[in-house]
């Protein structure tokens, strides 16, 4: 199982290709059996953690070998040795008498010499070729060509066969080795109790604290991977000595969450790395096979979509569909929900969809007509009227004492809270503006609604739907969007969201003559500003500025701009 996972990850990782004209030769010798050397070896590709080599000698998976690498140039030749373990092999299609072997280089063998070799190797690349290679590295993946299809299929086939021919305990026993951690836990969700039940673990004690349970629910309901490192024991809210966790939802064949797989206490002591995050996606998919009879325990009855028509983007795009799926799941539970995003994204409509369209169940702590302590006193009266859900706005306007009172009220009354915020409550909690206990209580499930400018692939589709909706409402022929407006929308050089886009479309339709078929949107684009001195790299400045302006403004990126530029200039100077 471990080799199957490593095999797949090895295939997906990017390695620099080495060609015959690069004049790199190699010699491979075995370590654990009699010293067998093979000189007719060609290095196919290499990076800091692994390499491919081609030869006619036969090796077995898991065999440890030494690889001596040499170059034959006029100047600056290399001669060094690496050790590693063979984790994959397949027939070399250009010569079926030879085999391509993949080696995972041992960490203690990843010396400075290898780093300098790769650096020297890269210095011989043409600029255009180097840019293409670096772009692939940044994506942390290789380009999979048509010829790679057979190999990729065989990798998955091998992985699946190995998994399904055994027992789940066979997989679980290998998890600490695969993830280089101490413990694993499998949790299944019980909708009747609203709690997670431990299914399997290799630990004598399982965390069951409220705060840990909230993290489980965040991964479960949002279908996200959570990778957390806890520097202080009190930060975990867990009585156990948990240093870090990596969680992934277990999803059945219907796309429904049925449980959580959790790894804890990495050997490194820090967060799990990118490779481990990719690994847990694969493992979660594989072990879902053993729970194929397990159904989503929350009521799966169809929930009627009562969202206003002009927020119908929730059903007409991939991002929107994901949002409405989360809302439909939460609607059938009693979990507290935190809806977070910029102005104009329909957060209030989403909250009313969960709690019902009742003006009495909305509490705005920024409304000065009634003092906040009076609003808190009225919550008990609302529950006496049968109201079980509250929509809360501007919670950061409460002082510490009122926050503590609010926390005790909602804990004792057991009502569901749907919190709406344009400010980043997590950042406010870190800066001691919001009490940690209150934050943890009201954010069991987090739903971030991304701004339109981060959804370029969907923005034109959303705009066209608004046009269709408004034209149908006025009983006029459906208008088309001008190509200039399409280009401006896709450029995303603006800061508005759904409500503003809807208003712009209404204005454009009203200004267009009835016999005109095309409408043009008057978009207000973002002003261009410089963030560093003009004598620096202008193109790079503009790239940085566009990146920062495109970020979700509802998320706190403390000192991001200054840190970004400062580090960049320091690297340029060095």
What do you see in this structure?
The protein has helices at residues 2-12, 112-122, 127-138, 149-164, 168-179, 210-222, 233-236, 274-287, 313-316, 318-331, 347-355, 372-384, 400-413, 425-430, 436-442, 456-473, 483-491, 498-511, 538-550, 560-573; strands spanning 16-17, 24-30, 37-46, 50-55, 64-71, 79-91, 99-105, 181-190, 195-201, 226-229, 244-251, 257-266, 337-341, 362-364, 389-393, 416-421, 445-449, 480-481, 518-519. It is of the alpha+beta class and 574 residues long. It folds into 5 domains: 2-141, predicted glycosyltransferase like domains (Thrombin, subunit H), CATH 2.40.10; 166-291, Beta-Lactamase (2-Layer Sandwich); 330-449, P-loop containing nucleotide triphosphate hydrolases (Rossmann fold), CATH 3.40.50; 452-519, Orthogonal Bundle (Helicase, Ruva Protein, domain 3); 538-573, no CATH class. Helix 1 packs antiparallel against helix 4 (149-164), helix 10 runs parallel beside helix 11 (347-355) and helix 16 (456-473) packs across helix 17 (483-491). The longest helix has 18 residues, at 456-473. The two termini are 44 Å apart.
Fold topology:
Elements (H helix, E strand, L loop, with lengths): L1 H11 L3 E2 L6 E7 L6 E10 L3 E6 L8 E8 L7 E13 L7 E7 L6 H11 L4 H12 L10 H16 L3 H12 L1 E10 L4 E7 L8 H13 L3 E4 L3 H4 L7 E8 L5 E10 L7 H14 L25 H4 L1 H14 L5 E5 L5 H9 L6 E3 L7 H13 L4 E5 L6 H14 L2 E6 L3 H6 L5 H7 L2 E5 L6 H18 L6 E2 L1 H9 L6 H14 L6 E2 L18 H13 L9 H14 L1
